[in-house]
Amino acid sequence: MFKHHHLLNNHKVNLESSATIGYSSPPHFSFKLTKVAYMWFKNLKLFTITSPLDWNEIDLDEQLKEFAFRPCGSQETSSMGFSSPLGQGDSMVHVAQGRVWVTLKKQERILPAAVVNAELVEKVSQIETETGSPVGKKAQQDLKQEIIQRLLPQAFTKNSYTHGFISFKDNLVAVDASADGKTEAYLAMIRKAMTSLPVIPLSRKSIQGELTSWLQDSSAPANVVLLEEAEFRGLGEQDSIVKVKNQDLLDDEILQHLEAGKLVQKLAIEWDESLTAMIEEDLSVKRLKFTDVVKEQNDDIAKEDKLARLDADFALMSGEIVRFALWLKEVFALDEQSQ
């Protein structure tokens, strides 16, 4: 059904264990369970590649290995690096139909402030009892740092993952992230590894006017179904915000908000029987869900063949995301933006 390949595909992968030096399975995946691993993106930040890249997926794989994830050191609060998208194996990329999947892993030490503060109070009380003198602010800060350094090696660690892919053919980068900071960290790490990643947001203009027209003029594209959720914002010094849920977006109450000058900031839609999502005025895509019509296309792959299913799901999902991104470019006339 799909033409795809995995770099270093002669490498034997142990599906029964998620433990391997330098890697661990992302939270979307589970190789220990009998059910098929889950990896569908839940958010989208979309970027256009502005000039031809002078590297390919093989170059990318080799360079990302120089920035492979390593666990936090005993005195480090966090560590970040690339890990295998499949959760196993040596390759830092996975390729399907020319789209290159890259995963950034971050590990943070969790040291609750309450624990540190409790230790600090106890230590300060002990010193003041022994010396009969109050402990000053600077001395307390020094004590706090000593406590942190002592407790840090014992702190639990938390792993998080940012997934994304590069489509060279379509000059597109898609990142599964809802926050700008997480997105920029992902792009910055690839840029650091490759020395260059010339990208700009797919949309550099607000699309609130177009989204508002879809409701005000009942002019949503034919392949768009308006769902019953939206957010509106008024213009002026004191912006008013109206959030609606479980309400027909074409009824008179909504029209009154629009006639009063409010504009659509967020709009829930179903697109082409392929996905549902919340589209925001900066073209961020939140709460992305693919429909059963899409997901069931890979049901013919045996559940026991986890890597094959994961590979096919990525090929299918990334293909739908590219198709959606190209449609967004067309419907919002994004190619007409000034460079």
Shape: globular
Report the radius of gyration as a whole number of Å: 24 Å
Largest sheet: 8 strands, antiparallel
Indicate the structural class. Answer: alpha+beta
Structural write-up:
The structure is a single chain. With about 350 residues, the protein is an alpha+beta fold. The chain contains eight helices and 13 strands. The protein has helices at about 55-65, 115-130, 135-150, 180-195, 210-215, 250-260, 290-295, 305-330; strands at about 5, 45-50, 80-85, 95, 100-110, 155-165, 170-175, 200, 225-235, 240-245, 265-270, 275-280, 285-290. The strands form two sheets. Strands 1, 2, 3, 4, 5, 6, 7 and 8 form an eight-stranded antiparallel beta sheet that branches. β12 (about 275-280) and β13 (about 285-290) form a beta hairpin. α2 (about 115-130) crosses α3. The chain is globular. Mean pLDDT is about 90; it is low at about 1-35.
